[in-house]
Specification:
Length: 375
């Protein structure tokens, strides 16, 4: 976008990740504390700060992501009278909530979609869900290219050939994993909604059958949607399970793996699945929205029913026993990512959407778009 003449700024909660993005991408960042969980007082404070920031920057476009960022961002953009308001829907969070929380989350998601002038869904299944659940009309929402939010840099960052061969054994030594071991890898938040309970149950069965098997969990525990204590106890006390905590060098960790598991209960788009596929790894994922588009069952990986530890166990075991199948699925997966999910296609489509939406608001494309900070 910057190369096309846009000036880009990011608003997010403070933290080392935001500082990392600021340095990596050389963009302006603005810190506004926002909590993932529902917190009325904190949310009102964040909304006020967002409004003040937008009034000061006076952007032409506000493009919001995540449930909380989307809701507060769209309300603040409306109050600040931002000409173009866009929301990227990464998934239907209310689909796996219950009770009063479900009604609150559902109302929030619908309000976010109502306030946005255009919605981009990260997958066709999420797009269809949004229409079926009454979040928006079909004309208001679309999927860019083949889905995802930003594609996958399979020629650069997620390209196994870009990394030295000694990196795989070096990473394994770092985590105490033998060089010749089989490694099952999970990447993401370590919470119940990601299917960690089922993964743990499947793991306990696999552990008795494969002495050389290790589970590499690239992520960290989160208090919201926390695991049951007995599940956490298994993960923390097994010498063959490695929990890395938060890491920045995700692609390098895939190099240490033989299989990627994504046993999630819901997903907007299975980013981990296409990241792993780009690194030529076979994927075992659940047959849920998002994952069904990130994984071609039988061609780039294996899809199993959600919340079914037995099916998960059998699929992983099958791949552990068949290296030729692992290699075949991995090679097909990388080929598909290169054909369908390259970032440049998403960027071009997104730029066209920005320009078209500005024109609908009477703003003709005149080249560079710069923020006009209020004095």
């Amino acid at each position: 976008m910057r190369e096309s003449g846009f000036e880009v700024a990011a608003i997010s909660s403070a933290g080392p990740q935001l500082e990392f993005v600021e340095q990596r991408d050389n963009i302006k960042v603005h810190q506004v504390p926002m909590l993932r969980r529902i917190s009325p007082l904190a949310d009102i404070t964040a909304l006020f700060r967002l409004f003040k920031t937008m009034r000061r920057l006076r952007p032409t476009i506000v493009h919001a992501h995540t449930p909380k960022g989307g809701l507060l961002g769209m309300i603040a953009a409306c109050l600040a009278r931002i000409p173009v308001r866009i929301f990227t829907l990464h998934g239907i969070r209310s689909a796996t909530t219950v009770g009063i929380k479900k009604r609150i989350v559902e109302s929030s998601e619908k309000l976010t979609c109502r306030l946005a002038q255009k919605i981009f869904a990260v997958s066709n299944s999420v797009c269809q869900q949004a229409v079926d659940f009454g979040y928006c009309k079909k004309e208001k929402i679309k999927v860019l290219v083949n889905g995802s939010c930003n594609g996958i840099d399979a020629r650069g960052l997620f390209n196994p050939e870009k990394y030295p061969q000694e990196l795989r054994p070096r990473l394994r030594r770092k985590y105490g994993i033998p060089e010749n071991a089989l490694v099952l890898c999970y990447v993401g938040r370590i919470v119940r909604d990601k299917g960690i309970t089922e993964l743990t149950e499947a793991w306990q069965r696999l552990r008795t059958e494969f002495d050389d098997l290790y589970l590499l969990m690239v992520g960290e525990y989160e208090p919201e949607d926390a695991l049951d204590p007995e599940v956490t106890q298994v993960l923390d006390n097994d010498a063959h399970i490695v929990i890395t905590g938060f890491v920045y060098d995700i692609p390098e960790h895939y190099l240490a793996a033989d299989i990627v598991a994504l046993p999630t209960h819901r997903e907007g788009f299975g980013y981990v699945a296409i990241e792993g596929a780009a690194m030529e790894l076979p994927i075992v994922a659940t047959r849920v929205s998002g994952c069904v588009e990130a994984v071609e069952d039988g061609r780039t990986g294996v899809l199993v029913p959600a919340k079914n530890s037995d099916a998960l166990y059998k699929a992983i075991k099958r791949l552990l026993l068949d290296k030729l199948l692992r290699d075949k699925l991995g090679q097909a997966g990388r080929k598909r990512v290169l054909e369908c999910f390259m970032p440049e296609a998403i960027w071009n489509a997104l730029q066209n959407e920005y320009v078209n939406l500005m024109r609908k608001r009477g703003i003709e494309w005149q080249g560079p778009i710069h923020f006009k900070e209020a004095r």
